[in-house]
Amino acid sequence: MFMTFDADVLIIGAGPSGAVAAKLLRQRGYQVLVLERAEFPRFSIGESMLPQTMELLKKADMLSAIEQGDFQFKDGACFCAGNKEAIFDFGKQFSNGHTTAFQVERGKFDKILADNAAAAGADIHYSEEILDVDFSGAHPKVKAKDLKTGKLNNYQCRFVFDASGFGRVLPRLLDLETPSNFPSRQSLFTHIEDNIIDASYDRHKITVDVHPHHRDVWYWLIPFSNGRCSIGVVAEESFFEQYPGTNEERLKKLISESAKFSSLLKQANYDSRVNQITGYSANVKTLWGEHFCLLGNAGEFLDPVFSSGVTIAVKSADLAVNCVDQFLQGKTVDWQSDYAQALQKGVDTFRVYVEAWYNGDFQDIIFHENAPENVKDMICSILSGYAWDETNPYVAQSRRRLKVLTELCQLEFTADTED
Ligand SMILES: Cc1cc2nc3c(=O)[nH]c(=O)nc-3n(C[C@H](O)[C@H](O)[C@H](O)COP(=O)(O)OP(=O)(O)OC[C@H]3O[C@@H](n4cnc5c(N)ncnc54)[C@H](O)[C@@H]3O)c2cc1C
Fold first, then answer.
1. Could you tell me whether strands 185-193 and 32-35 are parallel, antiparallel, or unpaired per DSSP bridges?
2. Is the CA virtual torsion 183, 188, 189, 193 positive or negative?
3. Is residue 363 one of the residues assigned to a domain?
């Protein structure tokens, strides 16, 4: 007798990793059930996209839906520290592939992706929260609660993708969580009507500014297409203790300390609640098991400084779908090599640059007036999200290359840079 399943793959969460995985699975003809706790659109942080994400959305045939979403066009990143500026133009990068992206209100962006997956046949249940999972039998069983009616639902499937982001459903239920190597950082952020009148300000780029006295404290300014923008500040949790008051007062005080942001935002209208998120970096013991794997933030989250979160999320969806396709066809899958290590390659590239951002090495390089252009193009590729492109020496040997660059930087770039 044949077993009947509610889905080939049950996906927990309809954020970017869940929606893209659902669409890619539908392209291959699999039955997909997505259980999403929230109603869409819902707020999410993480609004600056990278070109590598667009490349992956193109593969899932979702890019044109996003292009019609009236989002803010993005073609690069501008890093500032005092009067120093390092501008990266994604058009001048080493890797092949898409060279532009968007800055997006995530409520709208995520809904477009989820609707696109649903239009391709993915069954998405909103307001349905995963309560428990059982991997002890031959096939996974999932217990969920309909948050509108209180009804408990039991599902049986052939495989589970956990795409629950910071909800981290399977890491919690299966005791997979491990601490991140990064210190606990906090972010204060909000959306404002920016009223920026500075003619030299480029809305096509994210702006990242370094605090004048603390190199590990930084601000973001992500403009949207409607005259509003996302602003935020990131620092170690303990740093914020010296800023008393409400979140809005603390954010405004910190912005007043940035010459760049206080000048750009002098006419801004703070009309929305200031939120805070703390201790978001996370890690796990394993990214997969016999009948599950962890996608996007459910697996690991590094740090927001290079806007890499959604790129890693959709890359994980792509890799996981390749593997589960083999699994569902009854073939042997090497999840460690073809999923965990393949994903980790790019995550580790970002990790090297994130570490170098906070210890100051990366800032020394990009703000150096003699930084060589060819090196800048290779670094630009990583900032565009092409962190898996091993033809780029700054990906293939990221730690060694960055160390050499830092040393050359201290020697004022008087020597050659090897290539
Ligand atoms: C301060 C900060 C700034 C950031 N800035 C950027 C940026 O500029 N660019 C960028 O690319 N990334 C950024 N990120 C990272 C980005 O937010 C995430 O990497 C990205 O949203 C991960 O996508 P995901 O699909 O894995 O998870 P999510 O987008 O979090 O989606 C997970 C979904 O699962 C659902 N869910 C959770 N629990 C359950 C449950 N029990 N049952 C059912 N559903 C559940 C949630 O409701 C949610 O819809 C930032 C992160 C932080 C903390």
1. unpaired
2. negative
3. no
Both tokens of 410, joined, read: 């201290």
364 Cα–ligand 1 center, Å: 31
Q: Which of 393, 363, 350, 361 is nearest to 375 (CA)?
A: 393
**293 part of a folded domain:** yes
Instruction: Report the alpha-carbon angle 16-142-22, nearest 5.
Output: 25
Give helix then strand counts, H and E, for the chain. 15, 19
What 3-state DSSP class applies to 391? coil
Q: Tell me which residues have their CB closer than 6 angstroms to ligand 1.
A: 12-18, 35-38, 44-48, 129-130, 163-167, 169, 187, 232, 277, 280, 296-298, 301, 304, 307, 309-311, 313
Mutate to test the pocket of ligand 1, among 164, 220, 284 (most ligand atoms within 8 A of CB): 164
Shared-domain flag, residues 119 and 215: no
pLDDT tens profile 238-290: 999 999 999 999 999 999 999 999 999 999 999 999 999 998 888 899 999 99
Ligand 1 centre distance from Cα of residue 15 (Å):
6
Q: How many domains does the chain have?
A: 2
CA-to-CA distance for 56 and 312, rounded, in angstroms? 10
Q: How confident is the model at residue 413 (pLDDT cuts 50, 70, 90)?
A: low
Tell me: do 194 and 164 sit in the same domain: no
Smallest CA separation from ligand 1 atom 26, residue: 296
φ/ψ (deg, to 5) at 222: -115, 105
Are 124 and 117 a contacting pair, CB within 8 Å?
yes
Q: Measured from the CA of 295, which atom of ligand 1 is nearest?
A: 26
- pLDDT for residue 130 is more than 60: yes
Which residues span the domain enclosing 266? 185-278
